[in-house]
Write a structure and sequence with these properties.
This protein is of the alpha+beta class. The protein has two domains: 4-16 and 96-186, Pdz3 Domain (Roll), CATH 2.30.42; 190-440, Alpha-Beta Complex (2-enoyl-CoA Hydratase, Chain A, domain 1), CATH 3.90.226. 24% of the residues lie in helices and 26% in strands. The chain has helices at 35-54, 61-74, 85-96, 123-127, 148-155, 210-224, 245-253, 299-309, 412-421, and strands spanning 4-6, 17-20, 81-83, 98-101, 104-109, 112-118, 134-138, 141-142, 162-168, 176-181, 183-186, 190-195, 198-203, 232-236, 242-244, 260-265, 272-276, 288-292, 314-317, 325-331, 337-346, 362-363, 378-379, 400-401. The strands form five sheets. Strands 1, 5, 6, 7, 8, 9 and 10 form a seven-stranded antiparallel sheet that branches. Strands 2, 3, 15, 16, 17, 20 and 21 form a seven-stranded mixed sheet that branches. The longest helix is centred in the first third of the chain and has 20 residues, at 35-54.
Length: 441
Amino acid sequence: MMRKLSLLFAGALMGASAMSLVYGAPGSTANAAGSETYKQLAIFGDIFERVRAQYVTPPDDKSLVENAINGMLTSLDPHSSYMNAEQAQDMRVQTKGEFGGLGIEVTMENDLVKVITPIDDTPAAKAGVLAGDYIAKIDGDEVRGLTLNDAVEKMRGPVNTPIKLTILRQGADKPIELTVVRDIIKVKAVKFRVENDIGYMKITSFTEKTYDDLENAIDSIKKQVPNDKLKGFVLDLRLNPGGLLDQAVSVSDAFLDRGEIVSTRGRDPKDVTRFDARPGDDIKGKPLIVLVNGGSASASEIVAGALQDLRRATVVGTQSFGKGSVQTIIPLGENGALRLTTALYYTPSGKSIQGKGITPDIKVEQPLPPDLQGRDLTRGESDLKGHIKGADEGSTGSGSAAYVPPDPKDDLQLIYAEELLRGQKTDPAFPPNPDKAVLNQ
C-alpha cells in the first residue's frame, strides 16, 4: 500500500494522542528523591563520562542525553516522550493547523514524490502543479534517496520564501521547472460533501481548527439540502489518530444537548476533571452515524464514546485503537518540551477504553483489496510494548484493521451507514433496546 502524507501536516503525522495543552508545571509535586535515587544518578553520570571518553568514535553529547531521556520516558509508556526544540515546534505547527508550505498532498512512488492533489488556492495550485506530477528535484537536489518525510521537510519553510521544483509530467517531453513561493497553508481538519440526502463529514485530526471547520461543514450541508429531505449525517472518524482534548470535547458538544462528555482521572484519586455538554444540538436531533476502525484513536474515541454512551449516535465499523490516556505538554523553554502521560480518560458511562477501544453498535468489516490481503493492517493500543494496562482490557485486546478504500464506491462501512440512515438496511442486533433507537429520533 502506498504511504500517503500531506504537506498540510508539515511533514510529520500526529501520534495517536489526546493532548492537553495546559502549559506549565504539573499540578502536584512528587516526593523528594531519596539517597538511593541520587546514587543511581551518579552512576548515570559516571557511565555518560566513560562513553564520552572511551567509545570507539566520538559520540554526540546532545544525542546521548536526548536518547537517555527518551529511554527513561519510553520505559513508562509508549506515548510519553521528550521533544527537542525542533520537534516541539513541529508539534505546535500540527496542533495549530497552519504552517508555511506549498499546499499539496503527496505520496512516495518509484522513489519520487508524487502529487496526489494540489489544494485549491494554495501556492502549488497557483504555480501550476497538477495531480499526478512527479517531483524529481527540490531546489536542484535529487529526490531519489530521500524518505518521504525528508522530502516534505525540504519543501517546508518560512512564508514568502521561494522553492524550485523539477517536475516530471506525463505527456511532457522534458522536465518542467516551477518556482513556488511558500505561503500560510491552513489545514482543513474536516472534509465534507453531500451524498444526495445525507451529509458526510470526515474529521482527519483534532487541531485548533477542527471545531470551527466542523461548524462550517454543518452549515454548508444544511444550505445544500433542505431540512425535510436531509436524512441525517455520517461522522467519519476512521484513520483519525487524535489530537487536542478540548477539540474532542467541542466536537462532541456540537451534537449533544446535555450530559457528561468525558472525564479524566490522574494519579491522585481526587484529581478528576469532567467535561459536560452545553445546551444546543447543531444538527437539531437529525440521525447521526459515527464510523470507526483500528485507525480511530484517542481524541476520536472520546467523541465516539460520548455519542455512543449518551445514545446520540450509532457507531458503525470495527473496534477502535484503544488509547485512553491523556498527554500533557510541558514546555522546557529553549530545550523543547516534555510529553508526559498524566491521566486516563473515561467515557460518560465510566468505562476506560484503554487497551480495549470502542466497540461499534454494528460491526461492519471492510474487506481488503487483493494486493493487501494476507498483510496485517491491524492497529491497537494493546499491541504496543509497555502500554498501560486498561481497567477493562480483556484478552482480545483492542484495535482492528486500519484501512479505508480510496473510492467511496468500495467503502462498505460508509455504504452500510448511508443505507441505515435511509432505512434500507436493518440489523437483527440493532437496536439492542428502545433507548438506543437513535435513528428514529
